[in-house]
Design brief:
Strand order of the largest sheet: 9-8-7-10-6-11-12-13-14-15-16
Radius of gyration: 24 Å
CATH topology of the largest domain: UDP-N-acetylmuramoyl-L-alanine:D-glutamate ligase
CATH class of the largest domain: Alpha Beta
Shape: globular
Strand content: 15-25%
């Protein structure tokens, strides 16, 4: 496709070269991923690229360059290479990438989920319910990678939870070409702030909740919230919003005629009552449009019911039969790393969960506490190079709701693991709960298994289904559930 057509109607200026240059090799922010005939998107500050990497991109086959402002001093671009200047390279990249792949989001039902907690769970639930109730071919893009049905889509390891716009549009085009009818994607706050989901043509935007997290990226809760709200400022046609969260009022103000609500406590368009939670799952009555539907999900917890309501509302708004959707809920397979359960040969129950914020840890532990017959043992840590203000709070929560805590490393990254444990312990020590400090995560899980009795429940929190641990700059293979299963056999 001609470069000029990729940016037609978008504010741009040709600095040199032929705007009719054919782009045939795709596009990327990453200078190392250029192919012959590609467009290099020189986005400032990108770790694997930026304007300073234009030379490397050209060496690898780029035939045109998109820059923000102009080419930096000292960077030489041959006269036959077309250079286009735009006021905002991320916004322009989303436009160009979408057009290059034929605006695939227009051809599928698109659901994007934002919020602090529940994004991955709701995406899995939507996929599962649509497949079971309608037989639909569903694409998923999120924390656990990208796939169409059961087919994973290989992508470079550097691709984010919500991919940069060139990768996202490539994935959407891939899914469209494989006759995918619906796509569900996780829209992180940073993805919204950096325009990764622009031009995805989202039909339903789902908001789950807002609690403390990612202050290392956003600085304040107000900035964090405002990033989430970007989904509801022209990026989606309809909103599905948790009415139990106070942010609902702001989304309703942004989309007054296109907001549907769900709730466990507040009045809402889709509401749950009569909750019954035990170790096997949750049962409730769904109220919608004057009708009642008995419902069940094989995941315990009020938060799981809230996620189920978001799922039902989004899928129903896409035009699917509500009774069939409700019937598909209790047939959901387990969600990897989200309240994922295992029983050891000795009878100890182990739950692996991604809970890594104060609110999510409190919700999971409160649920476990509600049906635990004996002790609750919690193994957890906090990520390094991330919001340190939540560490003491998580320590306090774990101490209040556990009988024994084992503090360990999460993804320490470049921080000293022991200093992270010091900060967690500062909140935990005041609760009076007994705790151990074992920085080696495998050994911490081993200790918890050895300390547990047959009726005890062990919660291993923080990493969920992540297949590795980040130590320094290195990715070390590590799966909490695989380690639990391995140690339980020894």
């Amino acid at each position: 496709m001609e470069l000029s057509k990729l940016l037609d109607g978008y504010d741009h200026q040709v600095l040199q070269g032929d705007p009719g240059t054919q782009i045939s090799g795709g596009m990327s922010f990453d200078a190392h991923r250029m192919a012959p005939g590609s467009l290099y998107l020189a986005v400032p500050g990108h770790r694997e690229g930026g304007p300073e990497a234009i030379g490397r991109a050209l060496e690898r086959g780029a035939v045109a360059v998109l820059v923000e402002g102009g080419v930096p001093a000292g960077v030489t671009v041959p006269d036959d290479v077309c250079v286009v200047s735009v006021p905002d390279s991320r916004r322009a990249s989303a436009v160009a990438a979408s057009r290059y792949h034929g605006e695939p989001g227009r051809e599928m039902d698109m659901v994007a989920i934002t919020g602090t907690n529940g994004k991955t769970s709701v995406s899995y639930m939507i996929e599962s319910v649509l497949r079971a109730a309608t037989g639909a071919r569903v694409g998923v893009i999120g924390t656990s990678g990208s796939r169409v049905g059961d087919e994973p889509i290989p992508m470079p390891r550097t691709v984010l939870t919500t991919p940069e716009s060139p990768d996202l549009q490539y994935l959407l085009g891939y899914m469209r070409d494989r006759r995918t009818s619906s796509v569900v994607l996780e829209a992180t706050s940073m993805a919204l702030l950096t325009h990764r989901v622009d031009r995805a043509f989202i039909d339903i935007g789902v908001f789950t909740n807002l609690t403390q997290d990612h202050l290392d990226d956003h600085g304040t809760m107000e900035s964090y919230k405002n990033a989430k709200l970007m989904l509801f400022q022209g990026l989606c046609r309809r909103a599905v919003v948790n009415a139990d969260d106070p942010v609902v009022a702001q989304i309703q103000a942004l989309m007054p005629d296109a907001t549907t609500t769900y709730a466990v406590e507040a009045e809402a368009d889709y509401r749950a009552t009569d909750l019954v939670v035990d170790g096997a799952g949750s049962r409730f009555t769904l109220h919608h449009d004057g009708r009642k539907y008995p419902a069940a999900i094989p995941v315990p917890g009020r938060f799981s019911v809230s996620n189920a309501l978001a799922t039902l509302a989004a899928c129903h708004l896409l035009g699917h039969d509500l009774a069939a959707l409700v019937g598909a809920l209790d047939r959901m397979p387990p969600i990897p790393g989200r309240f994922e359960r295992f029983v050891t040969p000795l009878g100890t129950s182990v739950i692996v969960d991604y809970a890594h914020s104060p609110d999510s840890l409190e919700q999971v532990l409160s649920t476990v506490r509600g049906f635990a017959a004996a002790r609750v043992i919690t193994v957890f840590g906090c990520g390094g190079d991330r919001d340190a203000t939540k560490r003491a709070a998580m320590g306090r929560i774990a101490g209040v709701l556990s009988d024994l805590c084992v503090l360990t490393s999460d993804n320490p990254r470049t921080e000293d693991p022991e200093q992270i444990l010091d900060q967690i312990a500062s909140g935990l020590s005041g609760t009076g709960t007994v705790f151990e400090r074992i920085a080696d995560r495998r050994q911490a899980i081993r200790f918890a298994l050895a300390a547990a009795g047959p009726q005890d429940i062990i919660l291993v929190a923080g990493k969920g289904s992540e297949p590795h641990q980040i130590v320094g700059e290195e990715l070390i293979p590590f799966s909490d559930m695989d380690v639990v299963r391995d140690l339980a056999r020894t």
